[in-house]
């Protein structure tokens, strides 16, 4: 990497954009400059894809023993931990999130690399009983080839790791494009892969605009799999582009996640976690619990206290030790959240708190006050759309059936939570909810060993867990007849 301008990484070389273009990245908390990075051209992307293709076809990585690939990932995990402070600071400045959250993300991605390092050689396939002693029939998993990876700005480290670790464990090569607003930690991950000696061409990094730099990763004929995390609208474009080439697609999209609180829940824990669900990281979490669905018998007190606690949340920049939550990622994004809340109120929701930008001390940053909208109806746009900001909508229910119906009344299906002290209620409701992750009496934890992904419009495929590795493989059946014989279907006529 150069000291001043972070460049692209193509075929084992750190190279500037072929056009010489650059982009200045700023911190959303105060618009201070974080760094300058190269802005790739379509030609740069082409070179990166072809380098990845060559590396794959030459078997530079795919042909290594799976255990060796696993060992490499364990070394990546060690290197990440050694550079934890540098990475966390870069993530915090790019995204505006609090340093402590970025440090947590570093621990999470280290676990992710360790998990896939450990299971890299645990996917040997299986023998199939062909019903014939002379036949060896086995099913094997092979790397899929060249992966295009496109990630969003809310969890740049996490999303890159969730894709890179399983892709490398399975033996693929890849080209990754982080969000243009938050490229620095993906650049640092590539620096780690490079410094540990990954063969040239296996890992490639392109930086820049979604339409120019991201789009070819979903449409190029040499891409075998496109793995995308981001919004529904972009996800749909990517799926359409990939469909033309019949590519395998993995999509992790948005969510409109229900947080269902029954009357018998542990009140303090449910209240505390309702704040955590909706306002952690200013709600810039795909699985944020932005739809509070609370039993009518406790709703008034619960929402009053939620509002009071929301008003006490301290906003601040990433390095401010007093801050409890940070800014939105850009002015454009804050404008979207402002519009989303205004439309919700216009459609009949009652604004209980928030609904405005952060305090005067944050004039330079894109802060938005934690917001609660109650008296929401199912047809309110604030209930239907993913606002992607610190906004909780409140709906109430009287019966378990009603709670389930409200929680499932969304086109998304990423995650949700159930709060109750009754194990039967917890189990029944969690099985009826059409969402990919259900927390019972908790919110937000996830494990690298457990699959993550969405039902319905929240996506296609799964990351993490054994399925997260399988996502990056093709499955092949090898049927070996050890005693070749004439079949007799078309007998000789001579
Ligand atoms: P986005 O869809 O705007 O952008 C995501 C990425 O796609 C960026 O790198 C962008 O440059 C790129 N892109 C834009 N247009 C493209 C195109 N035409 N072709 C290829 N790439 C293109 O999303 P965002 O606003 O950065 O992120 C927020 C969204 O991500 C939210 O909807 C959130 O719910 C979702 N998300 C989902 C998960 C999950 O695990 N399901 C995790 C994090 C974020």
Polypeptide structure, described:
It contains 16 helices and 21 strands. It is of the alpha/beta class and 494 residues long. The chain folds into two domains: 261 residues, Aldehyde Dehydrogenase, Chain A, domain 1; 183 residues, 3-Layer(aba) Sandwich (Aldehyde Dehydrogenase, Chain A, domain 2), CATH 3.40.309.10. The strands form five sheets. Strands 15-16-17-14-13-18-19 form a seven-stranded mixed β-sheet, with helices on both faces. Strands 10-9-8-11-12-20 form a six-stranded mixed β-sheet, with helices on both faces. Strand 11, helix 9 and strand 12 form a beta-alpha-beta unit. Helix 2 runs antiparallel to helix 5 and helix 10 crosses helix 11. The chain binds nicotinamide-adenine-dinucleotide (NAD). The site of nicotinamide-adenine-dinucleotide has 31 residues, from helix 7 and helix 9.
Main traits of this protein?
globular, Aldehyde Dehydrogenase, Chain A, domain 1, binds nicotinamide-adenine-dinucleotide, seven-stranded mixed sheet, Aldehyde Dehydrogenase, Chain A, domain 2, 20% strand, 2 domains, six-stranded mixed sheet, alpha/beta, 494 residues
> How would you state the average pLDDT, rounded?
96
Number of domains: 2
For CATH, the homologous superfamily of the largest domain is named as: Aldehyde Dehydrogenase, Chain A, domain 1
Count of DSSP-assigned helices: 16
Terminal CA distance reads 72 Å
Overall spatial form: globular
Strand content: 15-25%
Q: How are the strands of the largest sheet arranged?
A: 15-16-17-14-13-18-19
């Amino acid at each position: 990497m150069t000291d001043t301008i972070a460049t692209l990484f193509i075929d084992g070389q750190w190279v500037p954009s072929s056009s010489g273009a650059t982009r200045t990245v700023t911190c959303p908390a105060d618009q201070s400059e974080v760094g300058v990075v190269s802005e790739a051209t379509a030609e740069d992307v082409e070179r990166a894809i072809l380098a990845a293709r060559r590396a794959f076809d030459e078997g530079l990585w795919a042909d290594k023993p799976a255990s060796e690939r696993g060992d490499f990932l364990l070394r990546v995990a060690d290197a990440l931990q050694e550079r934890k402070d540098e990475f966390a600071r870069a993530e915090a400045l790019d995204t505006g999130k609090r340093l402590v959250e970025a440090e947590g993300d570093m621990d999470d991605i280290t676990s992710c690399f360790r998990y896939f390092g450990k299971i890299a050689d645990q996917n040997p396939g299986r023998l199939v009983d062909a019903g014939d002693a002379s036949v060896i029939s086995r099913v094997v998993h092979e790397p899929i080839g060249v992966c295009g990876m496109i990630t969003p700005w809310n969890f740049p480290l996490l999303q890159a790791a969730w894709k890179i670790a399983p892709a490398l464990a399975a033996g693929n090569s890849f080209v990754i494009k982080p969000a243009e607003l938050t490229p620095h930690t993906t650049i640092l991950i590539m620096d780690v892969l490079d410094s540990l000696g990954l063969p040239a061409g296996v890992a490639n990094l392109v930086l820049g605009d979604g339409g120019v730099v991201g789009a070819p990763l979903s449409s190029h004929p040499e891409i075998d799999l496109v793995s995308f995390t981001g919004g529904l609208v972009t996800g749909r474009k990517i799926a359409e582009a990939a469909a033309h080439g019949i590519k395998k697609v993995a999509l992790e999209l948005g969510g409109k996640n229900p947080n269902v609180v029954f009357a018998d829940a542990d009140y303090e824990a449910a209240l505390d976690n309702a704040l955590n669900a909706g306002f952690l990281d200013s709600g810039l979490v795909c699985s944020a619990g932005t739809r509070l669905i609370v039993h009518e018998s406790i709703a008034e007190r619960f929402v009053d206290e939620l509002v009071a606690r929301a008003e006490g949340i301290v906003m601040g920049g990433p390095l401010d030790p007093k801050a409890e939550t940070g800014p939105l990622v850009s002015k454009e994004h804050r404008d979207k959240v402002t519009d989303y809340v205004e439309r919700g109120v216009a459609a009949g929701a009652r604004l209980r708190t928030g609904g405005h930008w952060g305090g005067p001390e944050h004039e330079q940053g894109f802060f938005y006050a934690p917001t609660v909208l109650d008296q929401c109806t199912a047809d309110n746009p604030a209930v239907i759309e993913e606002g992607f900001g610190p906004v909780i909508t409140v709906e109430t229910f009287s019966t378990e059936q009603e709670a389930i119906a409200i929680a499932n009344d969304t086109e998304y299906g990423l995650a949700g939570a159930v709060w109750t002290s009754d194990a039967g209620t917890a189990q029944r409701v969690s099985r009826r909810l059409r969402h990919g992750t259900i927390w019972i009496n908790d919110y937000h934890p996830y494990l690298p060993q457990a699959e993550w992904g969405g039902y319905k419009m929240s996506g296609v495929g799964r990351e993490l867990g054994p399925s997260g590795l399988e996502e990056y493989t093709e499955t092949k059946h090898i049927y070996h007849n050890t005693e070749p014989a004439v079949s007799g279907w078309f007998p000789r006529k001579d």
